[in-house]
Automatic annotation (TrEMBL):
Keywords: Signal. It comes from the Bacteria. Residues 1-25 form the signal peptide. This is Lipocalin-like domain-containing protein. InterPro entries: DUF6252 (IPR046219). Pfam families: DUF6252 (PF19765).
Length: 170
C-alpha cells in the first residue's frame, strides 16, 4: 500500500514538472533559497530540487499526523532524467533523530526517472535510513537525512542517498 501511495505522489509531482518550462536551481551548497526543497547525493550524483522562475516544484503537505515532502530533480534537457525523492513522516510530531527501516510507519524513497524503479526504506528487509528533524512547527519542517533504499518490487538493487537536506513549507 505504501508503494502505491509513493508511486501516486511521484507521478503527480513528475506531471507537474512535465508541464513546466526548463530551469534549475544551481545552488551548489546543498541548501536552497526555495520555500520547499530537497537536496542530496544519490549514488554520487547531485540531486537538487527543480525550480521554475525561482519557484520550487517541491511539494510539502501536512494532514493530521502525516507529513509528505517530495521534490523532483531534472538533469539535462529531457524529463526522462527526472528523478524524485519522497519523505513521508507518519506520527512524527517533534524534532529529533529517527531511524527508519522496512517496519517503520515513515519512509524515505528515491524514484529513478530513467528506469522507473523505486528505491525506498519501507518495503524490503535491510533497507535503512536516518532522518533528523531540526525544525518542526505549523508552517514548516527542516532537517537532514540519509538512507539506503532497496528496489521496492524485487529488493535486489539498492541506491545509497547521502548528505540529504530538506525544507518543507506547508
Amino acid at each position: 500500500m505504501k508503494s502505491i501511495k509513493l508511486l501516486g505522489t511521484a507521478l503527480i509531482l513528475s506531471l507537474s514538472v512535465l508541464f513546466s518550462s526548463c530551469s534549475s536551481d544551481d545552488n551548489n551548497s546543498g541548501a536552497s533559497n526555495l520555500d520547499t526543497y530537497i537536496s542530496a547525493s544519490v549514488a554520487g550524483q547531485n540531486f537538487r530540487t527543480y525550480s521554475l522562475a525561482g519557484e520550487s516544484t517541491g511539494i510539502a503537505t501536512r494532514f493530521g499526523g502525516e507529513i509528505n515532502i517530495s521534490a523532483t530533480s531534472v538533469e539535462g534537457t529531457t524529463f526522462q532524467n527526472a528523478n524524485t525523492i519522497v519523505i513521508n513522516l507518519s506520527g512524527i510530531t517533534a524534532t529529533g533523530t529517527y531511524q527508519l527501516n522496512s517496519t517503520s510507519d515513515s519512509y524515505l524513497a528515491y524514484v529513478d526517472g530513467a528506469s522507473q524503479k523505486i528505491f525506498s526504506t519501507d518495503d524490503c528487509e535491510g533497507s535503512t535510513g536516518t532522518i533528523t528533524v531540526t525544525l518542526l512547527n505549523d508552517q514548516k519542517i527542516e532537517g537532514t537525512f540519509t538512507f539506503t533504499g532497496k528496489e521496492s518490487f524485487e529488493c535486489s538493487e539498492q541506491k545509497v542517498v547521502t548528505s540529504g537536506m530538506f525544507k518543507g513549507t506547508f
